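Renewal narrative, Specific Aim 1. Our central claim is that a sequence can be written position by position from structural information alone. The example that follows is taken directly from our test logs and has not been curated for this report. It begins with the structure tokens describing the chain, in the order in which they were read.
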């Protein structure tokens, strides 16, 4: 088991913190927003309201004893830079930061960040790589509202063409790929494509519309 501190509980930070904890690691989640702390409290080891821009707060929490710190406050260059400086100065072994631009990345690397990530950019690369292979990844969040998901074709869709199903109009999603029961992947299938038994659909749309497909 490793120990992690995740600073900044937006969508990215919250996802990192909860996933690390579900994988069996000890996770301290830190944010200045009490509502975010309350929301995640039951999904991590420790959830604390605190300002990581204050080095004394980090020292009081014993952050230097954690194996790795994740700075997920990438939307504010000044805040993430100051937090990263604090973490390195108090002796955190490994610091991973989220950046919003290449300039931001250079700044973070200059002050000692061990790794800098661009979640949206890396997600786009994974999407392209996944769609070019047979093993399409199960879910990709493109933004707060939109995503791409792989799901079993609803039983009522089997034996019908995409044109007959009129998925875009009826369900407000786009079928961007279909993988048949034999594992063959058809990217951007046309309207005459017949959805077969055991097919997996890769659909793009709003998260709320995608979720409704699971109930069909």
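The sequence written for that structure reads:
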């Amino acid at each position: 088991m490793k120990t992690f501190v995740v600073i900044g509980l937006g969508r990215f930070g919250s996802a990192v913190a909860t996933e690390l904890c579900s994988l069996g690691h000890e996770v301290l989640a830190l944010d200045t927003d009490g509502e975010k702390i309350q929301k995640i409290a039951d999904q991590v080891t420790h959830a604390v309201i605190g300002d990581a821009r204050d080095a004394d707060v980090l020292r009081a929490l014993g952050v230097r004893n954690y194996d790795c710190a994740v700075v997920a406050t990438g939307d504010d260059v000044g805040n993430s830079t100051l937090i990263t400086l604090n973490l390195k100065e108090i002796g955190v072994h490994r610091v991973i930061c989220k950046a919003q631009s290449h300039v931001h990345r250079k700044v973070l690397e200059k002050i000692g960040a061990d790794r800098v990530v661009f979640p949206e950019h890396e997600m786009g690369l994974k999407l392209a790589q996944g769609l070019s292979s047979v093993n399409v990844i199960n879910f990709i969040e493109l933004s707060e509202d939109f995503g791409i998901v792989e799901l079993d074709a609803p039983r009522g869709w089997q034996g019908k063409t995409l044109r007959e199903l009129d998925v875009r109009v009826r369900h407000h999603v786009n079928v961007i790929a279909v993988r048949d029961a034999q594992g063959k992947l058809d990217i951007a299938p046309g309207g005459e494509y017949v959805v077969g038994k055991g097919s997996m659909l890769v659909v793009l749309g709003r998260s709320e519309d995608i979720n409704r497909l699971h109930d069909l």
